[in-house]
Input
Amino acid sequence: MAKPYKLVGREFQPENTHIHVGDAVFGNGSFPVIAGPCAVESEKQVLSIAKSVKDAGATVFRGGAFKPRTSPYSFQGLGKKGLLFLAKVREETGLPIATEVMDIETFDLVEEYADLIQIGSRNMQNFSLLKRAGNSDKPILLKRGMAATLSEWLMAAEYILEQGNTRIILCERGIRTFVRHSRNTLDLSVVTAAKQESHLPVIVDPSHAAGVRDQVISLAYASAAMGADGLMIEVHNHPEDALSDGAQSLYPDQFFTAMEKINAIHAIISKK
Ligand code: PEP
Ligand code: MN
Output
């Protein structure tokens, strides 16, 4: 039976889609890692973290300028100023920038600065936003909704593809379950399932799945072992003072050490 997602499915395109973001390639068997803070807080903060994560081997820098926060009283992001700081990071380090777009109103602005436009979990089924993303000439990082089935996630990607943008990276970031020992539950098996169903690259964000630093590294190793196409990891130079997601942010030296093992695991499992 034909799948409801025509364009994202393997039936439509059997071979993997490769997506270039700066020097990073997603979906070609390499293992690019996107790293950086949850939110852009200052120029100094992003430059410091960017230097650390680049030294550790990350090839895309992340940081939110527009932040979707549960509470309206929490830090909402620096907006355009944050995007300017991200542009400075790109200029100084050469790293391409991944940053989230929250709505249609700010899409043009985010699109101007981002090398990879993130659509967050909370917006996975914001269909007008998905259509706008489908008309962008920038690649899209589509996070899985926190209660979305694989089929709903792929249909969300279909909205983007159907409008003509073929450059979509899927990102598993944990789903809501009954457990209390972690923020979400990382659905590792969806990596295999999504890659069987779709030709799009599938990466994993263990940070938002875990919610606590101590679980992030082992989930990152497991994601590499699952054959994911890369990772997105939150790293902060002073996590205890972070304006968002400090508890799940790795210290730069932790990230550095983890990257050595991540690369070793990827090398083992990609051996022919
Ligand atoms: C984020 O990447 O900072 C973020 C808000 O992610 P998610 O949409 O997965 O919660
Ligand atoms: Mn975050």
Summary: The mean pLDDT is 98. Residues 29-67+74-271 form a domain with the TIM Barrel fold (CATH 3.20.20.70). The pocket of manganese (II) ion (ligand 2) is lined by residues 38, 208, 234, 244-245 (CB under 6 Å).
